[in-house]
């Protein structure tokens, strides 16, 4: 069977987005075509047009086919304590705060949306057991929902192969799992905290299936929105806001929510994570939470977006008025674009330095608003004027990463490091991308480089663009390094 034509792939893509919220990436079209052809063969359907009609038919057979198709186009790979940056924040800041808040009720409600095969909600249950000496006396429910029913079936069994423990210490494995002939099975005390159910985030009905989900303390939805189009993301975020109680938290994947505004949520920035806290409409201050676990406590004071200062000579802060930084950026850009020097004929022009600054500022505005296409055009234009700025290549890497092109993002972060070998944030982001690919040695090497440069800085130095002190970032990176199941000696290859 020959590949499906481009225009028909677009029709399939739109139909899938409408029915599931999933968005097929442009780079995945060849794989997408092969997946559709495989499903057509399974259904003994010869022509793509007939398969489209079958999917649109609203019959029981088509509903079952939708479930199978979703399984084929989504990635269900996971493992325990995946993304240590997020779990560091959960263990040392978020969960202790929620425990303190709920100590009178002895009740917690947590939702892992897009839970795959269950490793994430079980990992959270293990953390709670570590933090609560009387966990058995608490009313804890962790909901795990996913669109992939095969993944949910595996999650409900709670049996995993050794591969699922590749980022987990032996002590956790020995305490919370029991070996049987099929693999490692989660112990009953942890398993009873978690409830799994089918959940399509593009459908509103499932959100009210459990009344407790209307009073949720924490929602984790990581690496799910990468499949969704912008409209679907906005719709789900609105429902997340309505589901969380005041003071509840939302954790998403790295840079997944660029350009999406959450009306009642306060954004907090950490080097490997962005988290959101539900407010009551007034300003919320993040308190330092005591660590009930072990000794390392990194970055106990996250900063809000309003705390981040844009380091640009073209940005002028108005000391007399409270203003929106994004509006100030746009105003600065417009002023620079309109105010030039006059030549002898009276025509205005902008010198390269002013134009470069304006392009970079405008690219930052576009990036912050999620308009990555425009940001990329502006960055390329700026590169034609000046191609030796590490900061510009770092911004370019953020844009390409936001578009889902991790491969190009890595190369651009490397370019930023080549131009500025002490660019700490570039090493941190590069480590994140390597870790995302499970390239642990290279992740270790990049993070080790950041640590070495941090050691040479005064403890109160501010590290941009995170706007945290070198001391805070160093503690955080040291924690990540110490919790890794590998040695830096294994990282023999250069980045």
Structure write-up:
It is built from 18 helices and 15 strands. The protein folds into three domains: 6-73, no CATH class; 84-305, Vaccinia Virus protein VP39 (Rossmann fold); 388-495, Tetratricopeptide repeat domain (Serine Threonine Protein Phosphatase 5, Tetratricopeptide repeat, Alpha Horseshoe), CATH 1.25.40. The two termini are 42 Å apart. The model is unreliable at 206-211, 283-349 and 485-495 (pLDDT under 50). The protein is globular, with a radius of gyration of 24 Å. The longest helix has 18 residues, at 84-101. Helix 6 links the parallel strand 1 (107-113) and strand 2 (139-146). The strands form four sheets. An eight-stranded mixed beta sheet has the order 6-2-1-7-8-10-9-11. A three-stranded antiparallel beta sheet has the order 3-5-4. By secondary structure, the protein is of the alpha/beta class. Helix content is 46%, strand content 14%. It has helices at 6-20, 29-42, 48-55, 60-73, 84-101, 119-131, 149-157, 170-176, 188-191, 230-243, 325-338, 352-368, 372-385, 390-402, 406-419, 424-436, 440-455, 470-482, and strands at 107-113, 139-146, 159-160, 177-180, 183-186, 194-198, 216-221, 244-252, 265-270, 273-278, 303-304, 341-342, 348-349, 462-463, 468-469.
